[in-house]
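Write out the bound-state structure for zinc ion.
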Amino acid sequence: MKLVNMKEMLIKARKEGYAVGQFNINNLEWTKSVLVAAKESNSPVILGVSEGAAKYMGGFKTIVGMVEGLLEYYEVTVPVALHLDHGSYDGAKNAIDAGFSSVMFDGSHYDIEENKQKTTEIVEYAKLKDISVEAEVGSIGGEEDGVVGTGEVADAEECRMIAGLGIDTLAAGIGNIHGKYPENWTGLNFEALGKIQDSTDGMPLVLHGGTGIPEDMIKEAISLGVSKINVNTECQLVFAEATRKYVEAGKDLEGKGFDPRKLLAPGSQAVVDIVKVKMDLFGSTNKA
Ligand SMILES: [Zn+2]
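---
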């Protein structure tokens, strides 16, 4: 199956009351793991790629080739979107040119007028190729690829303005942050989420920083219009943990245990497992 944009999968998720997971990829193993999990869970999935990860993997075209090859090789028939995460203005255009099926333009660090202007331009460019667009209002806390957000709560009126620009989905800060949550985190701001939902007229919303948010909060967020949840750090943590266990057990020193196909296998399986757990939690299992 060819890559699809996020539009249909998020409208369906919004209507049926679940969320589609965006899992960020870092290399071949990661991509295989997320696709295998989606296939086995019969779930739609969004592969997230930050600009930093794109550089690491050898550019957008390399990623498009890798993902399209894997879809064919593994006979993946569930809907898969390849999405630029936190794209810059130029990055979003370049990802579209390279064959991504979806982009996020993160203009949250501009003032609202400039965010509006640039988001409008990206939407116009994306529509020519039927690419879905995610925009952002109110920066999300924590650090993502060197971009540090302060974790503000998005203004509902600004959300209304950006949602009206022809985008498909909106990321709005509601106290969520990237990376691990600190001990003193006060939780998601559901009052703000409710206002954002009201002001954006049923638009599917995105929750960034999905790692470590308690399950009951995830479910409440979905009930208030969150239809896409981004998971990145959690996959990295389980991959590192499984790999560390393998090495600490001395398995890389036994026989051909140093072979990367063996060395990276436990971490890769850990990513498959955690992605399936998240798909169950988000309610997207068997919704392909
Ligand atoms: Zn994010």
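---
Residues 265-282 form the longest helix (18 residues).
The mean pLDDT is 94.
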